[in-house]
Design goal:
Number of strands: 4
Order of helices and strands: EHEEHEH
Radius of gyration: 13 Å
Strand order of the largest sheet: 1-4
C-alpha cells in the first residue's frame, strides 16, 4: 500500500480508537486477533484523526503524492 494509514502492530494495544474514530470507516476489526486492519485505504480522507488520537503512536497516515504536491503548492 503506497498511501493511507499504516498500523505498527508492535505498538498497537488494541484500544479500537482508530476503528471507532475514523469518519470514513477505513479500518476493519479482526475479532480473532483483536486488532485493527486497514480495510479501505482508498477511502481515507487523510484527516489524520486516527494518527492524532492513537495514544500508542501506532498509526502513521501517508498521503498519496498528489495530496503532498497540492499541499506544497498552497504553501508557495
Amino acid at each position: 500500500m503506497s498511501h493511507g494509514p499504516r498500523i505498527d502492530y508492535s505498538s498497537c494495544k488494541s484500544c479500537k480508537t482508530c476503528y471507532d474514530i475514523c469518519p470514513m470507516d477505513v479500518f476493519g476489526w479482526d475479532t480473532e486477533k483483536n486488532l485493527p486492519f486497514v480495510l479501505r485505504p482508498d477511502e481515507c480522507s487523510y484527516c489524520v484523526l486516527c494518527e492524532l488520537d492513537c495514544a500508542e503512536l501506532a498509526i502513521d497516515v501517508e498521503p498519496p503524492l498528489w495530496v503532498r504536491v497540492e499541499h506544497l503548492e498552497r504553501r508557495t
